[in-house]
Design goal:
DNA binding, 6 strands, Butyryl-CoA Dehydrogenase, subunit A, domain 3, RNA_pol_sigma_r2, alpha+beta, sigma factor activity, transcription regulation
Length: 304
């Protein structure tokens, strides 16, 4: 086996982790996959000059560093984005292609990804690499171009910011399952009264339409408005379309699928303390999965 072939085998083996790191930093799967592909070419070049003995260690630093550059450029574009910008939702497509796989800790739910958007690129990268992927501060310092002491300060600020803003989601236990099932049932049935009993009084609903017409361009605030918005969404489901429960970034959500199997939109919702605190709709076509995989264990078809 040639040296390049061995490099390719090792790189493919760690690719899901690399895509997970890049996605956690940049917030979109397509950009994350581009980052990982770019770094593969750099790996081959670097190995040609001096053999790379630790492929995973080299790749993690290279991918994280490149992802930071992409995020900084993306932040400028997102300032001109029409309406709210939301991360790309990760749903289970069950693809056999390693390029389509992502290794991501279940704790990095969709609501947390939204909070990470409010950090500076250096804070976000430090938080992701240290809190999620366990990278030590000296290695993170190489990525963000700061001293280890400065990186520790970034970590302290990022942790405080995330702790203050990210919902404390409990994804275990019968109460969580009850809220998820009840919310999905109320949405599918267009039951406003039931929805109002499940929504936090200060619930926030955000829609990312990528500039499409007919999509709310400002957050919807409060249980009554959010409940009516959700009922309106269900009423607009066309003949042949159906609502399908699924997991979004490891948490509960659903998609509305067209008759041809394509995705019309994906919704993530965040239960906290027995009530739904956040609802996020992604309608922007370039952020929607081409196909949705099998139903998660224990979830029944909506038309069964």
């Amino acid at each position: 086996m040639s040296r390049v072939a061995r490099l390719a085998a090792e790189y493919t083996g760690v690719r899901p982790r690399l895509v997970g790191i890049a996605y956690s930093i940049v917030g979109t799967l397509a950009e994350a996959q581009d980052v990982v592909s770019d770094c593969w070419l750099k790996l081959v070049e670097a190995d040609g000059r001096d053999p790379v003995l630790d492929v995973e260690g080299w790749a993690v630093v290279a991918v994280a560093r490149r992802a930071v550059d992409v995020l900084r450029s993306a932040r400028v574009r997102r300032e001109r984005y029409v309406g709210p910008w939301l991360p790309e939702p990760l749903v289970d497509t069950r693809s056999p292609d390693p390029a389509e796989r992502v290794t991501l800790d279940d704790s990095v739910g969709f609501a947390l990804m939204v909070v990470l958007e409010t950090l500076t690129p250096a804070e976000r990268t430090t938080w992701v690499l240290h809190e999620v992927f366990g990278m030590p501060f000296p290695e993170i310092a190489e990525v963000v171009g700061r001293s280890p002491a400065a990186v520790r300060q970034l970590a302290v600020r990022a942790r405080a910011h995330v702790t203050a803003r990210a919902p404390r989601v409990d994804v275990a236990g019968p109460e969580h399952r009850r809220v998820v099932d009840a919310f999905l049932g109320a949405v599918r049935g267009g039951d406003l009264a039931a929805l109002l009993g499940l929504l936090d009084p200060d619930v926030v609903l955000t829609s990312d339409g990528g500039g499409l017409l007919g999509v709310a361009r400002r957050p919807v605030l409060g249980a009554d408005r959010v409940g009516r918005f959700l009922v309106g969404v269900v009423r607009k489901i066309a003949a042949g379309e159906h609502l399908r429960p699924l997991t979004v970034n490891g948490g509960p959500g659903f998609a509305v699928l067209r008759a041809d199997g394509s995705t019309r939109y994906v919704c993530s919702f965040t239960p906290v303390g027995g009530l739904v605190r956040r609802v996020d709709f992604v309608v922007a076509p370039d952020k929607l999965p081409r196909a949705v995989g099998p139903y998660p264990p224990g979830v029944t078809r909506p038309d069964s």
